[in-house]
Amino acid sequence: MVGRSPAAEVIWARPERAGRGPKPAFGRADIAAAAVRIADSEGLDGVSMRKVAAELGCGTMSLYNYVPRKEDLYELMFDLVSGEYDLSAEPSGDWRADLLALAHQGRAMMHRHTWMPALMSPVYGFSPHALAYLEYTLSCLDSFDARFGEKMELIAMINGVITTYVANEIATAERGRSLPWSEQQEHEARTRYLAGQISTGRYPRMAAGFAEDSGPIDLEGVFDRALGRVLDSFER
């Protein structure tokens, strides 16, 4: 006979620890902090229930009393890091400026925890700290005349830009660290190759473009302009 599927549940609706017994030596925050330390050091793939249990000094099976699934562990990690947003200041009334400030906080947070872009999903968007962030962001949009659904679309698009941009920055940095030569040598070699290809005359538009602006690229400016264009598309 086919067994029944487990009932759907959210870890935040569960008690801190299932079962009876003495007062636990640690809680969800301790588990999340241990997992985040491992992820910061070894990446998300390095996180396992066994390693978290070893970090806490407990048995792997006992950890399942607190965190039934690895997906729940990811949700705890996401929530802990989401708590790094500074939401103490009152919104200024300038919703564009407030969203840009939050975006820069998010970008810095993802660089501190380079595994975070992989967990940026609506699935993990309903933890306590994530809800606090969402409520604060909506309060920044009080002066923005739009329906709730449109405000949520704007927040999602901003977070999408941040996640995509940072993921590319992280991937570029990781590739640079894996090279058998310096990043400067890599850049010079690729620049020489590109210049040789442009000089063939097969790419006239690219040749004209590089003659107009040969760089270097202002990555900070590109980030702000990308966000600005999203905001422009929503502004009345």
From TrEMBL:
Task: Provide the alphabetized UniProt keywords.
Answer: DNA-binding, Transcription, Transcription regulation
User: Looking at the UniProt feature table, which residue ranges are given for the DNA-binding region?
Assistant: 48-67
Task: Report if keyword Transcription is assigned.
Answer: yes
Is Cell membrane set as a keyword in this record?
Answer: no
Pfam families per record: TetR_C_1, TetR_N
In what residue span(s) does the HTH tetR-type domain sit?
25-85
Q: Please give the PANTHER family that the UniProt record associates with this protein.
A: HTH-TYPE TRANSCRIPTIONAL REGULATOR RUTR, TRANSCRIPTIONAL REGULATORY PROTEIN
User: What is the protein name for this chain?
Assistant: TetR/AcrR family transcriptional regulator
